[in-house]
Design a protein that fits this description.
The protein contains seven helices and four strands, in the order αααααααββββ. The chain is α+β, with helices and mostly antiparallel strands. It has two domains: 96 residues; 87 residues. The longest helix has 33 residues. The N and C termini lie far apart (85 Å).
């Protein structure tokens, strides 16, 4: 197609889109917001979980130490990323906004490292795990008794619960997650409702719970 006006260059019909510095700044500022929302929601206790545990007397749900360690690590990464981005930013408002967002992220790190009682968490989780181990020990006793009476191990959890009803029973706060039975052995996995850990019991070697 020829240009009808040689003295005037023909205008192109395509439109190019560019991202302004303002838009880039907005994107950078919004990046840590999902992180903050997720961390705050995870650190705050679940009201529904608290009601359930209060009713069943299974104690408050405890998060693992590894969870807090990950929150601490990611808080440092996000916090320093925002801080140094603020140093490199050439706009005063963007610089102030980045530093303002870095403050609550570092506050999360401070909360995890100075307010969370890790020793108490270890003790509470261990207490819960001992309860799970005790439930597995009751199952082990029931399995040996059933084996001596019927010549095989019991693989049905419902029958196992009824078989143990007359003995020590199974702690209602402990869930038996898995029960596997072979010809000469059996294994089971249990978890206290308020503990992040799972306890494994092998019919030959016993529990995996570390007492140290």
């Amino acid at each position: 197609m020829t240009n009808k006006n040689p003295g005037h260059p023909e205008k192109r019909s395509d439109v190019s889109y560019t991202v302004s510095k303002k838009n880039i700044g907005t994107i950078i500022v919004c990046l840590p917001i999902p992180f903050l929302i997720a961390v705050i929601s995870l650190l705050m206790p679940d009201p529904f979980m608290s009601i359930t545990h209060a009713a069943s007397e299974c104690g408050d749900k405890v998060r693992s130490v590894e969870f807090y360690q990950q929150v601490s690590l990611y808080s440092l990464i996000v916090g320093f990323s925002l801080f140094f981005s603020g140093i490199l930013a050439d706009k005063k408002k963007l610089k102030t906004g980045l530093w303002a967002l870095a403050f609550p992220v570092f506050a999360v790190w401070g909360y995890v490292n100075y307010m969370v009682n890790f020793e108490q968490i270890h003790k509470t989780i261990f207490t819960y795990n001992v309860q799970a181990e005790s439930a597995l020990a009751n199952i082990a006793e029931g399995q040996e008794r059933y084996k001596s009476e019927h010549g095989t191990y019991l693989s049905d959890l419902n029958k196992m619960y009824s078989h143990l009803a007359g003995a020590h029973g199974v702690d209602p706060c402990v869930r038996i997650l898995e029960l596997k039975v072979t010809d000469d052995s059996w294994s089971a996995t249990a978890q206290h409702m308020s503990s992040p850990d799972k306890i494994y019991w092998d019919g030959k070697s016993g529990s995996t719970l570390k007492k140290g």
